[in-house]
Amino acid sequence: MLKLPRAPAGPSSSQGVLRGGVPREEDELTLSSLLLSLTEHRGDQMTVDGIVAHFGRRAFGAALFIFAAPNLLPLPPGSSTVLGWPLLLIAPQLMFGAKDPWLPKRIANHTVGTSFLDGVCRRLAPWVARIERVTTRRLGILFGFPGDILLGFVCTLLAAVLILPLPLGNLIPAIAVTLLGLALAQRDGLLAIAGYVAAAVSAAVLIGGGHLVIAAVMRVVHIITP
Question: How far apart, in whole angstroms, are the C-alpha atoms of residue 63 and residue 158?
Fold first, then answer.
């Protein structure tokens, strides 16, 4: 049986104990390996709660990543809204210091086709593996308290943007949440800084776009108003 690579040993994350306090073998695997093994022996459907639980102690970071990164791939219209709702529920929990992600039953029991999941994970895993080779635990001050509060707050705002049907307006927020999720899973502060920079760029683009829309509406009103 092929053995998946294990993540380097290190101190436990600030995300708290595992469900039931019992370490699992999956918690020692790399995130890219966990992505590749997500749909193994899962049948035709997998619940959202099962997806989150699969990542063990990396649940918060992995959940932010797994629901944000697919927005970087060509998906049907409206997918960002569907993927954004779990983010909008999970990110605030990180901000308020929850140990494990919690989802209401209606969302937790929602099923996703394993064929779809397998396709997404196999496209994302090679990129994650490349990032894992250059990331390391550093700038730990950006995690724990109060770092997780800031990260959760920023991801909450970005998730609120992702659920909006904005044509091409969800790409940069998705990049930001993807980077911040990976940073949390890898405990890499440099990657977190990159995520915050992407979040700042997203805010600037949204504010600039909003001003342009308002200016265009005001111009049209001025033209049609006698």
Answer: 14
Residue for token digits 């250059």?
Answer: 134
Identify the three-state secondary structure at position 97.
coil
State yes or no: pLDDT of 134 exceeds 50: yes
State yes or no: cis peptide before 146, omega within 30 of 0.
yes
- The per-residue pLDDT for range 41-79, each reduced to its tens digit, is 677 888 888 888 888 777 888 889 988 888 887 777 667
d(CA 143, CA 139): 8
Q: What is the largest CA-CA distance in the chain?
A: 78
Amino acid at 49: D
Q: Is 176 exposed, middle or buried (0-12, 13-18, 19+ CB in 10 A)?
A: buried
Contact indicator for 61, 181 with CB cutoff of 8 Å: yes
Read off the tokens for 152.
């959760």
pLDDT digits (tens, 9 = 90+) for 210-226: 666 677 767 776 677 76
Say whether pLDDT at 17 is over 70: no
pTM of the predicted model over 0.70: yes
Q: How many CB atoms lie within 10 A of CB 43?
A: 8
CB 155 within 8 A of CB 91: yes
